[in-house]
From TrEMBL:
GO terms for cellular component: membrane. GO terms for molecular function: phosphorelay sensor kinase activity. It comes from Indibacter alkaliphilus (strain CCUG 57479 / KCTC 22604 / LW1). Keywords: Membrane, Transmembrane, Transmembrane helix. This is Two-component system sensor protein. InterPro entries: Bact_2-comp_sensor_kinase (IPR050640), HATPase_C_sf (IPR036890), Sig_transdc_His_kin_internal (IPR010559).
Amino acid sequence: MKSACWQIFLVNTQNFVLVYRNNSYYNIMQGISIKKNISILTHLLGWAIFGSLLFLLIPLSTRLDFPSEFWTKQIMMFAILVAAFYFNYFYLIPKTLFKNKVGLFLILNLIGGIAYIGLIILFDNLVNMQQLMHEVFRPDTAYIKRPRNLTFDFYNVLIFYMAVGVSTSVATVQKWQQDEEVRFELEKAKTNSELSYLKAQINPHFFFNTLNNIYALTNLDVEQAKTALLKLSRMMRYVLYETEKNLTLLNKELEFIKDFVELMKMRLSSKVKLDIQLPENLDDSNIAPMLFLPFIENCFKHGISSQNESHIAIYLQKEGNEVTLITRNNIFKATENTPEGQSSGIGLANTKRRLELLYPERHFLKIEDKTDSNEFIVKLKLRLK
């Protein structure tokens, strides 16, 4: 029966995942299709405006009757410019410019400009364009063959290289945007994987130390050990569910700290003086989970002695959008045979890294190891959004 139920659960789960993936794939493809359609529409509108201004507006504004050869030439020039634009965009730039072959790119475009003017001159000679245009503008005067007007050829070369320049600019900007997106995604993936790794280190470290505390309690007071296990189960529920999220409520983090402190009190002797000042309640601001724990845990890990008087102070407060944590504790070497003695400050080092990744330029952390007064002080100020 259990096996059958489990199989049904797996099938339903697989179906749900399949539907979710199909929907996600559909949404992604739909987004790509929309962007593609917008891009095509932008190109069409751009070319329509460009062609109208350069090849239609001026001839039509003269209200003269141009021959069909003239319009054939206009269409040919426009087609060559479009072809040069996309040849440069899709082939020449990726194959030469983006592969640091700048010299080859310039030479090929220079040849392209010369070929463009050569085709125009060849077409003009074939249809005798100079005479046809003379008959349009000066129909009452006799045609006399004159040297070719190089001003128009220079003007056409400028138009050709303008199209090539726009093509190069568009391709370069798009390449830069794509590189930025890739860099951003890689940085994001790196940050997420690093944060997951750091949290994975912090959580077992905390769990290991707390179990060691409960183990010590089982030899002293079984009832207290049971109470400690209940608190630990509530805390581990927080660890399991809240640390999977990027952010948790500040009030939940406060309750977690209170449980931790209460759990630590159960193993302390009268030689340890506590000064704990935690607010009764905090607002629902968001904060990264288990961000304060390593500093508080460090107080109990290194600030307790079975032979000497010790003092631990923990202050937590929030003013506006700024949270302040201050901890003070004496420094005692942990026994080398205990897990505390074997640890090497993994929690503190990882928390520093988490602060750098999650709150860049929004946190102030000062750690003072005062050997002269045998005191370890942590001051953390965190600006929340």
